Amino acid sequence: MEKIFEALASTPRRKILAYLSETELSAGEIAARFEMSKPSLSQHLKVLENAGLVTSEKRGQFVYYSLLRDNLAHTLTGFMQSVCPVSTGLKKESRALAQSKAKAAASKTKPAEE
Protein backbone atom coordinates (compact mmCIF):
# COMPACT_ATOMS: atom_id res chain seq x y z
CA MET A 1 0.00 0.00 0.00
CA GLU A 2 2.92 2.31 0.79
CA LYS A 3 4.23 2.13 -2.79
CA ILE A 4 0.83 3.06 -4.17
CA PHE A 5 0.51 6.14 -1.99
CA GLU A 6 4.06 7.19 -2.84
CA ALA A 7 3.18 6.83 -6.52
CA LEU A 8 0.00 8.86 -6.09
CA ALA A 9 1.85 11.66 -4.26
CA SER A 10 3.22 12.99 -7.56
CA THR A 11 1.10 15.24 -9.79
CA PRO A 12 2.70 13.99 -13.04
CA ARG A 13 2.02 10.38 -12.03
CA ARG A 14 -1.62 11.16 -11.22
CA LYS A 15 -1.91 12.80 -14.65
CA ILE A 16 -0.40 9.73 -16.31
CA LEU A 17 -2.99 7.58 -14.54
CA ALA A 18 -5.73 9.91 -15.78
CA TYR A 19 -4.47 9.62 -19.36
CA LEU A 20 -4.42 5.83 -19.02
CA SER A 21 -7.89 5.68 -17.47
CA GLU A 22 -9.65 5.17 -20.80
CA THR A 23 -7.01 3.73 -23.13
CA GLU A 24 -3.53 2.35 -23.33
CA LEU A 25 -0.82 4.69 -24.58
CA SER A 26 2.71 4.21 -25.80
CA ALA A 27 5.54 5.81 -23.86
CA GLY A 28 5.91 8.31 -26.72
CA GLU A 29 2.22 9.22 -26.60
CA ILE A 30 2.51 9.83 -22.86
CA ALA A 31 5.72 11.84 -23.28
CA ALA A 32 4.03 14.11 -25.85
CA ARG A 33 1.66 15.30 -23.12
CA PHE A 34 4.39 16.42 -20.70
CA GLU A 35 7.17 18.96 -20.71
CA MET A 36 9.82 16.83 -19.06
CA SER A 37 12.83 14.84 -20.16
CA LYS A 38 12.31 11.28 -21.34
CA PRO A 39 14.44 9.89 -18.48
CA SER A 40 12.20 11.74 -15.98
CA LEU A 41 9.07 10.39 -17.61
CA SER A 42 10.58 6.92 -17.68
CA GLN A 43 11.23 7.16 -13.95
CA HIS A 44 7.60 8.17 -13.29
CA LEU A 45 6.38 5.22 -15.35
CA LYS A 46 8.71 2.88 -13.46
CA VAL A 47 7.35 4.10 -10.11
CA LEU A 48 3.78 3.50 -11.29
CA GLU A 49 4.67 0.06 -12.58
CA ASN A 50 6.53 -0.90 -9.38
CA ALA A 51 3.48 0.18 -7.38
CA GLY A 52 1.30 -2.14 -9.44
CA LEU A 53 -0.79 0.68 -10.89
CA VAL A 54 0.19 0.26 -14.54
CA THR A 55 1.52 -2.52 -16.71
CA SER A 56 3.72 -2.29 -19.75
CA GLU A 57 3.92 -4.40 -22.88
CA LYS A 58 6.62 -4.13 -25.50
CA ARG A 59 5.29 -4.41 -29.05
CA GLY A 60 7.96 -4.05 -31.66
CA GLN A 61 9.94 -0.93 -30.87
CA PHE A 62 7.19 0.62 -28.72
CA VAL A 63 6.24 0.10 -25.08
CA TYR A 64 2.54 0.46 -24.30
CA TYR A 65 1.21 1.25 -20.84
CA SER A 66 -2.21 0.51 -19.42
CA LEU A 67 -3.90 1.11 -16.08
CA LEU A 68 -4.35 -1.77 -13.61
CA ARG A 69 -7.64 -0.39 -12.39
CA ASP A 70 -8.42 -3.19 -9.90
CA ASN A 71 -5.15 -2.76 -7.99
CA LEU A 72 -5.83 0.93 -7.48
CA ALA A 73 -9.46 0.40 -6.51
CA HIS A 74 -8.73 -2.42 -4.05
CA THR A 75 -5.94 -0.49 -2.37
CA LEU A 76 -7.99 2.68 -1.97
CA THR A 77 -11.02 0.73 -0.76
CA GLY A 78 -8.90 -1.15 1.78
CA PHE A 79 -7.36 2.09 2.99
CA MET A 80 -10.71 3.81 3.39
CA GLN A 81 -12.12 0.86 5.28
CA SER A 82 -9.14 0.82 7.62
CA VAL A 83 -9.43 4.52 8.51
CA CYS A 84 -13.21 4.86 8.44
CA PRO A 85 -14.64 3.92 11.86
CA VAL A 86 -18.00 2.83 10.50
CA SER A 87 -16.36 0.25 8.24
CA THR A 88 -15.30 -2.07 11.07
CA GLY A 89 -18.83 -3.22 11.82
CA LEU A 90 -19.69 -3.41 8.14
CA LYS A 91 -16.64 -5.57 7.43
CA LYS A 92 -17.68 -7.99 10.22
CA GLU A 93 -21.20 -8.15 8.83
CA SER A 94 -19.87 -8.73 5.31
CA ARG A 95 -17.57 -11.50 6.55
CA ALA A 96 -20.49 -13.19 8.36
CA LEU A 97 -22.63 -12.97 5.20
CA ALA A 98 -19.86 -14.51 3.13
CA GLN A 99 -19.47 -17.37 5.61
CA SER A 100 -23.20 -18.08 5.69
CA LYS A 101 -23.37 -18.05 1.88
CA ALA A 102 -20.44 -20.44 1.70
CA LYS A 103 -22.10 -22.79 4.20
CA ALA A 104 -25.40 -22.67 2.29
CA ALA A 105 -23.65 -23.37 -1.01
CA ALA A 106 -21.72 -26.28 0.56
CA SER A 107 -24.89 -27.83 1.96
CA LYS A 108 -26.58 -27.66 -1.46
CA THR A 109 -23.72 -29.52 -3.13
CA LYS A 110 -23.60 -32.40 -0.63
CA PRO A 111 -25.41 -35.52 -1.88
CA ALA A 112 -28.58 -36.41 0.01
CA GLU A 113 -28.22 -39.31 2.45
CA GLU A 114 -30.48 -42.27 1.84
From TrEMBL:
GO molecular function: DNA binding; DNA-binding transcription factor activity
Keyword set, alphabetical order: DNA-binding, Transcription, Transcription regulation
UniProt KW DNA-binding keyword: yes
Domain HTH arsR-type per the UniProt entry, residue ranges: 1-87
SUPFAM superfamilies with a match to the protein in the record: Winged helix' DNA-binding domain
PROSITE patterns linked: HTH_ARSR_2
One of the Pfam families matching this protein, by short name: HTH_5
Source organism, top-level taxon: Bacteria
PANTHER family documented for this protein: TRANSCRIPTIONAL REGULATOR, ARSR FAMILY (PTHR33154), TRANSCRIPTIONAL REPRESSOR SDPR (PTHR33154:SF33)
Protein name as it appears in the record: DNA-binding transcriptional ArsR family regulator
